[in-house]
TrEMBL record:
The keyword Oxidoreductase applies. The lineage of its organism: Bacteria, Bacillati, Armatimonadota, Chthonomonadia, Chthonomonadales. Keywords: Oxidoreductase. PANTHER family: BCDNA.GH03377 (PTHR43818:SF11). The keyword ATP-binding does not apply. This is Predicted dehydrogenases and related proteins. Residues 134-252 form the GFO/IDH/MocA-like oxidoreductase domain. One of its GO terms (molecular function) is nucleotide binding. Pfam families: GFO_IDH_MocA, GFO_IDH_MocA_C3. It comes from the Bacteria.
């Protein structure tokens, strides 16, 4: 396969970055775009003149059946992902999907089964899985250099509540959940990815304010093996901020808005050199390279499942006011 023919399903704001990165890959040809909004399709063509003349669809099923594509990039509201992922895989297409992969544990298991059955590539668009700082922490923890993880402290804030008010992200029929299921999904996924620790139980407090979906979430976790964590996802804040601290037996990783510091067993802090950092990438590049057999999938469907296992348990805990076991099937 010299060129991977990609179809874009959903051409809203998040799709524009995917289109730009896919077009930059020498082995990609975007051959079709799809959106229920003619205005969104027109805006995309205006923003990316290279797409002039590509086939346009308003029904994703027609795009999948068209024979024009080898792969699809899904950028639709969250609850649409499952149906679109399954249809694409069943048609023999590779899939790059925005997060969350799906909105229930049941659907996540069905996607994993279909990926295995089809033999196709599925990448969940978790950018942090490809960023140098997060890869460095993952590699150092996996090496055992600093001993086992003992505690994780994570904080994420965003002006999400006001910024998405009246839009689909606060409609549970389309979003499947609130901030925890949206930007918070990235935070949860990368914590599980870096530590490689399955969550055992969670106690959650959640504040919706006047929204039908979660806005602020305070989660306390125990991982298998005994490590503990606090995860704070704040959707009602005036600014974006992300702060991660991972304490191991012999060291600590501090990641403040992308700036990494490491503390060794001697108590001294240092910043890893550029040469020490793993090479970064992005989900779009990895998707195409994985299809071509050049590299393994960096954010496979299993992380979509692990995130939903923890998210569903957190929602249940908040409803029932008690710790809830995170079930792994």
């Amino acid at each position: 396969m010299e060129k991977v023919r990609v179809g874009i399903i959903g051409t809203g704001g998040i799709a524009q970055g995917h289109i730009q990165r896919l077009l930059a890959h020498p082995a990609v040809e975007i051959t079709a775009i799809c959106d229920t909004s003619p205005q969104s399709l027109a805006h995309t063509l205006e923003r990316h003149p290279q797409l002039k003349g590509v086939q346009q669809f308003q029904d994703y099923r027609e795009l999948i059946r068209s024979g024009l594509v080898d792969a699809v990039n899904i950028n639709t509201p969250h609850t649409a992902h499952f149906e679109q992922i399954m249809a694409a895989l069943e048609a023999g297409l590779h899939v790059l999907t925005e997060k969350p992969m799906v909105c229930s544990v049941e659907h996540a298991h069905r996607v994993l089964q279909q990926v295995e059955k089809s033999g196709k590539v599925l990448v969940v668009s978790y950018q942090r899985h490809y960023m140098s700082e997060f890869l460095y922490i993952r590699d150092q923890i996996a090496s055992g250099r600093y001993g086992p993880v003992q505690f994780v402290q994570a904080f994420q804030s965003q002006n999400w509540y006001r910024g998405t008010k009246g839009k689909w992200r606060q409609d549970p029929a389309l979003s499947g959940g609130g901030q925890l299921n949206d930007s918070g999904s990235h935070l949860v996924a990368v914590i599980l990815f870096m530590t490689n620790l399955p969550a055992e139980s969670v106690f959650g407090y959640i504040e919706n304010f006047d929204s039908p979906v979660d806005i602020n979430s305070a989660l306390s976790l125990r991982f298998q093996g005994g490590a503990l964590a606090n995860i704070s996802v704040v959707g009602n804040a005036p600014t974006w901020h992300e702060d991660l601290t991972i304490c191991c037996d012999q060291g600590v990783f501090f990641l403040r808005n992308g700036k990494l510091e490491v503390c060794g067993p001697d108590g001294k802090r240092f910043t890893p050199t550029q040469e020490e950092m793993p090479k970064g990438s992005d989900p779009d590049t990895n998707f195409i390279n994985a299809i071509l057999g050049k590299e393994p999938v960096g954010s496979p469907a299993i992380w979509g499942l692990r995130v939903m296992e923890l998210t569903e348990a957190a929602w249940k805990s908040a409803r029932e006011g008690r710790p809830v076991e995170v079930k792994h099937l």
